[in-house]
From TrEMBL:
It holds the Pfam family Lipase_GDSL. CDD domains: SGNH_plant_lipase_like. Keywords: Hydrolase, Lipid degradation, Lipid metabolism, Signal. One of its GO terms (biological process) is lipid catabolic process. It comes from the Eukaryota. Transmembrane segments: none annotated. Belongs to the 'GDSL' lipolytic enzyme family. The keyword Lipid metabolism applies. This is GDSL esterase/lipase At5g03610-like. GO terms for molecular function: hydrolase activity, acting on ester bonds.
Length: 346
């Protein structure tokens, strides 16, 4: 997800209703799996440090206050889903691509090519889209950084968390064409998954879209009291197409493509926050002091223009778009009750 404040705010409810009428057409390590590597592609839901340090957001205070205790390039107060999945596989979190020449020894755990703000297509972000991220991966394989054996034992994580839709709306994409645009996002995602598979990765997991109608950017309109069902209906269209596409890919190839149902996992946690020791689940922990500021904003005198909640460990959302470490932990815990993650280990 992007940290830009424009996220979906350009779309008013009447437009959404028009659109809907067209829609009818830290745990234990597992040392038994030491040979695995994790390769990550996508956006800020999985980016562990590829964005530039001079940009607002993930490299600025107060990001990273829970882990590692300072800003470290994650769009959260701490760990992201990438970190939890790596630990599940018995790995250290894969090295962000931009540090590949700084600490090359850490490339043995895999590589993270994700950049916050990006999509499968170009977005308002200047960072590499997913096609280019896979190009980077291809280049490393050509340079023999990773062998065929490395790849056949590897897991790829692919995150498509909504930036393409943000950009579509921000550039005045029409309501009537939105369903066709969703289909094009899924089609491009399928092309990306096949490219990764043809490079030799046998297990590829792709995130389903989370409930966009529940991110604080949207729920602010209800004082963070309720999700917007109109947005979540759009998410359902994306996820249904993704599931159909992945089912077809599994029938046509000898690889394993797995969809992580983030929608249901997010909703399970948001609907039962107390079972995860969370409170006010739709309310973000870190917010700007007014609508012109966001989490991490400072003025020209470096005076902070944001507030942080007393205890991020009881918040599901960190800022207007991204979960806290506690939020991701709860989602990960819920996903462990499904079969999806188990398929990655064996």
């Amino acid at each position: 997800m992007d940290s830009h404040k424009q996220f979906f705010s350009l779309l008013c409810l009447p437009l959404m209703l028009l659109l809907l009428s067209g829609l009818q057409v830290e745990g234990r390590l597992h040392p038994a799996y030491p040979s695995k590597k994790l390769f990550v592609f996508g956006d800020s839901y999985v980016d562990t440090g590829n964005t530039r340090k001079d940009q607002p957001g993930s490299w600025k205070q107060p990001y990273g206050i829970t882990f590692p205790g300072k800003p470290a390039g994650r769009f959260s107060d701490g760990r992201l889903f990438t970190d939890f999945l790596a630990k599940y596989l018995g790995l250290k979190s894969p090295l962000p691509y931009k540090f590949r020449n700084v600490i090359p020894q850490n490339s043995k755990y895999g590589m993270n090519f994700a950049f916050g703000g990006t999509g499968v297509f170009n977005t308002s972000s200047s960072y590499p889209n997913m096609t280019t991220q896979i190009d980077f991966f291809t280049q490393l394989i050509q340079e023999k950084v990773y062998t065929a054996s490395d790849l056949s034992n590897a897991v790829a994580l692919v995150s498509v968390a909504g930036n393409d839709y943000n950009h579509y709306l921000a550039t005045n994409g029409s309501a009537q064409a939105f369903p066709a645009f969703i289909a094009s996002v899924i089609n491009q995602t399928a092309i990306n998954l096949i490219r990764i598979q043809k490079l030799g990765v046998k297990k590829i997991v792709v995130d389903g879209l989370q409930p966009l109608g529940c991110v604080p950017q949207i729920t602010a309109a209800s004082s963070f009291q309720q999700c917007n069902s109109t947005f979540n209906t759009l998410v359902a269209l994306h996820n249904n197409l993704l599931n159909q596409t992945v089912t077809k890919l599994n029938q046509e190839t000898n690889s394993t493509f797995i969809v992580l149902n983030l929608f249901d996992s997010f909703m399970s946690v948001l609907n039962h926050p107390s079972s995860h020791n969370l409170k006010d689940p739709l309310k973000p922990c870190c917010v700007g002091i007014s609508s012109q500021y966001s989490c991490g904003s400072v003025d020209e005198h470096n005076v902070k223009k944001y507030t942080v909640c007393e205890n991020p460990k009881t918040s599901f959302f960190w800022d207007l778009l991204h979960p806290t470490q506690a939020g991701w932990d709860a989602v990960y815990t819920n996903l462990q009750t499904t079969n999806a993650l188990h398929q990655l280990r064996y």
